[in-house]
Amino acid sequence: MTTTSSGSGGVAAPSERELPPTAVDDEVLEHERRRWTPARIAIWGAIALLGGLGWVMLAIIRGESVNAIWFVFAAVCTYLIAYRFYSSYIERKLLRPDDRRATPAEHSENGQDYMPTDRRVLYGHHFAAIAGAGPLVGPVLAAQMGYLPGTIWIIVGVVLAGAVQDYLVLFFSMRRGGRSLGQMARDELGVIGGAAAVVATLAIMIILIAVLALVVVQALGESPWGVFSVAMTIPIALFMGFYLRFLRPGKVGEVSAIGVALLLLAIVAGGWVSESGLAEYFTFSRTSLAWGVVIYGVIAAILPVWMLLAPRDYLSTFMKIGTIVLLAVAIVVVRPDVMAPAISEFAGRSDGPVVPGPLFPFLFVTIACGALSGFHALISSGTTPKLIEKERQTRFIGYGGMLMESFVAIMALVAAISIDRGIYFAMNAPAAMTGGTVETAALWVNNLGLTGVNITPDVLAGTAQAVGEESIVSRTGGAPTLALGLANILAQMFGGAALMSFWYHFAIMFEALFILTAVDAGTRVARFMLQDAVGTFVPKFKDMSWRPGVWIGTLIMVGGWGGILIMGVTDPLGGINTLFPLFGIANQLLAAIALAVCLAIVARRGTVTYLWIVLVPLVAVTVITVTASLYKIFSPVPGVGYWAQNAAYREAIAAGRTSMGAAKTPAQMEAVVRNTFIQGTLSIIFLVLAVIVIAAATAAAIRSVRAGGRPSNEEESVPSALYAPSGLVSQPAEKELEKRWLAEVGAPSRGGGH
């Protein structure tokens, strides 16, 4: 529950009346958490046994096929155990939150950026912001290497690395008044390390947003059904924004029902449009769609948050969590068999048609967001820390929010490996390999030497017809493959073959909402970061309400990622196939930067005994990303190394050749030379900046350890005057205190309007 001071429209301030305690006593709360009753022992014992059985079935007892139900059991049980025990360990030993201390949302409440927000609503907002294309696309592309390596990395990686990063960054930013990652880096690492962190973060953001947008473009190209349905989400979100602000303020449940109904209608109407004379008006080339997304990015980043961004986030949260839960239930009910091998023929090779390069390190940078994501650090040090009601809630929102994203990644992996392997490779290889037709694609797939795979042109054509598309060949980007897998599973539970096309385009809209939310939110965050950085030299830019600064910052950032997007769409080598490794490396390098900043902060606090909690994921992600970067920079294999590819095409042009590999014209050959130069240069820049930040953080940590800790950069503690439970489910002692607040103070008054 929450109460605010009388100055913000709530009840009387603490100085005017005596309030109940603002937090349950730590010892009481800890006693309740650690009290083991027979029922608790039985429940956790059953969870451990079920999870262990799931892992045994996936990793040890493997026949010709594996039932997908074991992925659900292994993942969910591991998440529950990790959240209950490991995140609690981090809370007790490393962070030691204090709910008697006011958070920035309380002591700096302004009704706009800072406002106490109900933990359940904030969980949805946070999840909507962090969940982009990564957990959907990465696992689909990495399925080329088999299901087991990806499953282990997604689940174990999130427990020990991804959720830890999100939790720590959120907590440390909250303790510093909601400061951004770049600001914390400047405070902790000094001028050089801080400057490198700011530049690296801005540059990496450009790549991340560009690839997110590229996934949407690849999914919607030449698909009138998909374009119409996704385009309709914009007026729907605008309607919801105006409805809540002017027509029916506060009627969240009412507008949610209307919004979901309109979304479903948009999907059905998309089918009507695709079969009518209107189809030609919604059929666009990928280049045209890319320009449309660029224009959308500018508008969405400039419009007021309440008008488009907030209602779209709210809509997408329903779609994201609801669809993933629905898919998990369908997997348990339908129990589809997974025909993909645990470890595939391409795991030890560098010539994979979907993701070139060996399993280590490329599996770990391809599955970026589902296990560990640097992008999350920007959200965890952006809007979320300014909205937290109580310090203990950071565990539920930070660690718990990342566990949900990991579950999204597992469901995406299951959907991808539940379809025929021949169809999988025909969809995810670029047209230069498949030939672009069902006949050439079938011939190419059958010559890959895959065990038990023999695809026919009729199967590829029939699959496209079943989902209402002209073709599924070379629909790269991962999103169409995920949509097909999701449609296959859901159609077996609801509607059968007759609803395959509906479920396919439902999945496309689901993915587009995921991704566009990250595109517009990411552009806005990137603009804030740029304005803050430029504001160091031109103070006027720090004023986020200064319209020229808003426009200039937005146009610069959109121009950056828009240029990379256009490059990817027109890339003869297949944009997503060449850009996604760079996306994954950049994202994980950003995670290394975030963890390095956390390392410096933990060492400054003097908690050396528990430094390993940060050090383990930091060392792992540093080794992975540095190795991957060196591959992309120095590998002599043209399919892996950017510079090797650049040299091969330059030599071919110099020799007078007019075509080579995927490039069929001299202009396309020159495009490959230009694109690989840009990608190779960015790889070098990202690596150098990340190494500078990690070195600066290591030096700062060593100084702090030698000094036994140093003065903290945290804000001064301010006593709290509000109360709220710490997690999704209130403990008995929390429920009692909640009753006291209701009886003595009354219902909460939240500036956020929730």
Percentage of helical residues? 55-70%
Backbone structural class: mainly alpha
How many helices in DSSP terms?
27
Mean pLDDT: 86
Strand order of the largest sheet: 1-2
Strand content: under 5%
Query: How many strand elements?
Result: 2
C-alpha geometry = globular
Region (Disordered): 1-26
Membrane topology: Multi-pass membrane protein
Keywords: Cell membrane, Membrane, Transmembrane, Transmembrane helix, Transport
Transmembrane segments: 41-61, 67-86, 127-146, 152-172, 192-219, 225-243, 255-274, 289-309, 321-339, 359-379, 399-419, 502-519, 550-570, 582-603, 610-634, 677-702
Can you tell me about this structure?
The protein is mainly alpha-helical and 754 residues long. It has 27 helices and two strands. The protein has helices spanning 26-34, 38-59, 69-95, 104-107, 119-130, 134-142, 147-175, 181-220, 224-247, 252-274, 286-302, 309-334, 359-366, 375-380, 393-417, 421-428, 431-434, 438-446, 457-466, 479-493, 500-535, 547-569, 575-604, 612-634, 642-654, 666-707, 732-744, and strands at 66-67, 337-338. A two-stranded antiparallel sheet has the order 1-2. α9 (224-247) packs across α21 and α21 packs across α22 (547-569). The chain is globular. The model is unreliable at 1-15 (pLDDT under 50).
